[in-house]
Amino acid sequence: MHEQSRLAYLQALGVVSWVPRDRAAQAAEGPSVPRDETESQRSPPLEAVEADGTAVGSSPANSSVDQPSIGSPGVSNTPEGLSEAEPAVPAVQARPSPAMTPFYLQLWLAGPCALLLQISEPGLEKAIAPYRLLTDILRAAGLPDQPVLFADFQWPLTRNPQFDRGAVAASQALYAFVQARLEEQSVVSIGCFGSRCTLLADVDVAAGERLMGREEAIEGLAPVWFAAGLEDLMGSAQEKAKLWRLLKRVMPRWKERE
Q1: Does the pTM exceed 0.70?
Q2: What are the CA-CA distances from residue 218 to residues 91, 189, 222, 225 (Å)?
């Protein structure tokens, strides 16, 4: 499992701390080890150790398969299509994607529909205008107009700078969060408000604009539809009209259930 997905599952389950079940690979034998040998035996930091005790990026400690090294007898190191005299072009290492700016989402339940809302800061208070707009939308869509706050998602998941904070990691973490939270909820539709919510379906937020006003099938989730954020909806009659056209297409999902 990807590290960001594992963190999202742990967060969704309310687990705030954990320790490996087994001794970590290459861990120090004990305090009797001489100081000049501790550098080669020091165990990886806790954040880099999977729950089964295996260090991320290393082979399991009990692996019995010897991987052939470059130049080993009987192993051809010449790429297909190149002669022995033609040197292979070295592979270019992929650079990590740029870190995403922090963002905050809230997951709400409104009867058979779940709502993922992007908001500017933690806490969507019932007295503020975006919440009142949300209740108007729910009432027009035939959903309960008193939604229940169910969970929070904040990116990045950790302040540790060693963790990947790119769009791919954010997408994996958000998907794991939503799937884990809604796994035991009988929702038939998921409404998403805000550009960061498109990470559920596309790692490219800029390209995610194409998702606005559409419903998408995402494996492991109820059908997901995307709309502009509540704050953007308040100031744009065009976005409100687009949302209403979208609602008329997706409302049968929960109307047929009644």
Answers
A1: no
A2: 33, 11, 7, 10
